[in-house]
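Incident review: delayed structure delivery

Summary: a single-chain prediction request sat in the queue longer than the usual turnaround. Root cause was a stuck worker, restarted by the on-call engineer. No data loss occurred. The affected request and its eventual output are reproduced below so the record is complete for anyone auditing the incident later.

Affected input:
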Amino acid sequence: MKNKIRVVVSGAGGRMGREVVKLVLQDEELTLAAAVDHSLHDIDAGLLVGLPEAGVTVTTDLEAALSAGGADVLVDFTIPQSAYSNTAAAIKYGVRPVIGTTGFTPEQIEELDKQCREQGIGGLIAPNFSIGAILMMKFAAQAAKYFPNLEIIEYHGDQKLDAPSGTAIKTAELIAEAREELRQGNPQEEETIEGARGGYYNGFRIHSVRLPGVFAQQEVVFGSFGQTLKIRHDSYERSGYMPGVKLGIQKVMGYTGMIYGFDHFIE
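Output delivered after worker restart:
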């Protein structure tokens, strides 16, 4: 039997972090090396997610968990303010980062890629781990070749910290690769309320909706003469991301350098 991949989960007490802990504890190909959370400690990781005791106590010290040795992968679902330093710390100790936190700048991703290559390890920063969402992005990029007039509308709960979402930005980047910049709308257009037309990207607009009761949805709306096309993906619960998280954990074991976007793993 092949060796299990040893996983450190950062942000273990968060809503996504708990799902990752549950995934790792229940998967025969993975094992939990450590669980880290700044707001929780001294609780067994299994009990944290409603499972039997796992023999791993949640700690607040990520550096100690990484430096202890034996870990293969860090999975991080924390906040943008700490994700970069967490990722850099993992790389320093030779632990492959799989990051679901958004908010990285292109310069930060480039620097992390350099650090990964110096260590000879792989890493992944993924704005979205949902396989359905990745397919939505790919289909949108394909459609943009034929329907260059489009807008992106993304919906999240009112506690989401960044706007637009990482998924929307990644979708926009893929579309920009497939279509030349085209400034849409009436050239004399004027916003009578600032921001009414959404954020500008490569000629099209991105709209961010933030409301309580919303989980995560995104649609790309294409317009042409006499027709429209809508490509939409809806997520209803966090467990839907876990197959993608597992695939990311497995894939980074065979890569060198930082991969930006889960779409690289979906052919």
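Verification: The longest helix spans residues 106-119.
Action items: add queue-age alerting; document worker restart procedure.
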